[in-house]
Amino acid sequence: MRGSMKRKKNRAAGAGPAAGMKAENGTLRIPVPAELDHHSAEQICARADELVRTRDIREIIFDFSATVFCDSSGIGMLMGRYKIMQALGGTVKAVQVRGRVERILLMSGVMKVIPVERMQGGEEQ
Amino acid sequence: MRNEMRLEFDSISANEAFARVTVAAFMTQMNPSMEEVADVKTAVSEAVTNAIIHGYLGEVHKIVITGEIEDDWLRITVEDKGTGIADIEKAMEPLYTTRPELERSGMGFLFMEAFMDEVQVESEPGKGTAVHMKKRIKSQEA
Questions:
Q1: Mean pLDDT throughout A55-71?
Q2: Which CATH number does B2-136 carry?
Q3: Domain layout of chain A by residue ranges
């Protein structure tokens, strides 16, 4: 694979867990990385909060389609963004959630305050 | 079957993934199910994150994980020599956190207890904390 694939690099978005965020028309779309833990959550929160401060964000969508691991730091990330958006009159939702991640979100009770959409045809990975 | 391992690493957040993946690799010889591996990875991640954030308050020191397999039992201990916990019972209460400013959900111990068969916390303020966890791995013949 090395060197054989040409990809467009988005240098502005940077690399690492906080890469690939898109702020458009008041919506911030965050692609959650494969592993959501304290390490990656911290970087996502820093970047997301910066975008919420500088752009007029009304909605945050966390896209979990690539995520296979999530611990309580992921719950902290969701609840923290929920509180920030609530204060601004905005909303937060999680989409493309499946398998193990869905179980963690369910156990935490975060689904009671944040809408969570399951991945269509999602099964255990 | 009996097998032991010891892992020592710096308390930096990049090592959270390293720690849980290493413990997952250690337990593969028990033929665990995907679910059992995911349970242990989550529990280890919680304990290591606690050591980094609460044990060492973000300073870089050593975290030690010891693992022991005895027949179908997996025992994992995550240990730090950090601040320790004054009130263990309180610390283990769901939603309780000493660091709300860090957006800690207060669910670390809840997940450890949910995913392991037994969780014991040994701690002394100023000396450090050891989290002992046990899980029976059932799918031996898988």
A1: 96
A2: 3.30.565.10
A3: 23-118
Helices B34-50, A72-87: axis angle to 10 degrees equals 70
| Mean pLDDT to the nearest integer, B35-50 | 97
List % helix, strand, coil for chain A (3-state, nearest 5): 40, 20, 40
Task: Judge: B42–A45 Cβ closer than 8 Å, yes or no.
Answer: no
Q: Kindly state the DSSP code that residue B110 receives in the 8-state scheme.
A: H
Give residue B63's identity as a one-letter amino acid code. I
**Which B-chain residues 93-122 have CB contacts (< 8 A) with chain A?**
102-108, 110-111, 114
The predicted complex's ipTM stands at 0.92
B123-138 confidence digits (pLDDT tens): 999 999 999 999 999 9
| Among the partner residues A37, A108, A125, nearest to B45 by beta-carbon distance | A37
A23-118 folds as Transcription Regulator spoIIAA (3.30.750)
